[in-house]
Amino acid sequence: MTALVGDIGGTNARFALWRNQKIESVRVLPTVDYPRPEDAIRAYLQGTGQSVDALQAVCLACAGPVSGDEFAFTNNHWRLSRKAFCEDLGLSDLLLVNDFTAMALGMTRLREGELIEVCPGRSELGAARLVIGPGTGLGVATLLPLPGGGWRALPGEGGHVCLPIGTSREAALWARLHDKLGHVNAEAILSGGGLLELYRTSCVLDGKQPSLATPAEVTAAALTGDAYASSVLEQFCVWLGRIAGDNVLTTGSRGGVYIAGGIVPRFVEFFIRSGFSQSFRDKGCMSRYFDEIPVWVVTADYPGLEGAGVALQQLLEGPSSGG
Q: Considering the entire predicted model, what is its pTM?
């Protein structure tokens, strides 16, 4: 079988061929360069010397709730109709999955050296695992082990839960954010654009003139010793800990927590030293619940593509396959 798998975020669309339960010929295309996903796929196939006619199946992992014929991508301008997509590319069907469903399934394909331990612990046998990832947005999914082997990923929109408040400083930041945004969800802070929003809001709160203009500049300044940027990045890590801990309590994810996405791997050493671990387990009478829960940062290059392939394999062969 020759299949195409895609992992489409707000900024980039990653494509690969899925053959013999492996990805190959990975390419990353900026979504802004193409009016439709069909156009990006044709460009990908042309660049890899493949014919559209050779495709037997397509699975796209997309940010946002996946249902019905029409799909609007959460963080970019693309839209698609399953029916029109299949007619355009000559396919009988299109498998659409939530991007963090694919990311979660990608955790079942990790190789040695693709995890960095943040919190030591021991995975509870048969327990769910949490996958959370700050990137262009904030993705959250749950990974469930199946009794007969294999895994099932539960999609959700946990990145849009309310941003929690744990200190008076966080309350003051939240109030400023609420004045500007109205509803303040976790993604407002725990994403690439959110880091810059946190920096600017902190500057307003502290009467400081902003001097950094992009999330990358905030991160770079923090890592080169700028005390103020470091305090902002620290608050980012603390808030990620609060949200991850809340999700663990909600889903019972005592099997462990995977920190995925493109942001945290850029400052892993800072992250490990940060207040993430403390805020992760700072849950009052339930704090001991977290004593043995391991947390890892995922450093794999294309877990979303791997997971899209697993999702396709599961559709064809059942949930115990592919993972």
A: 0.91
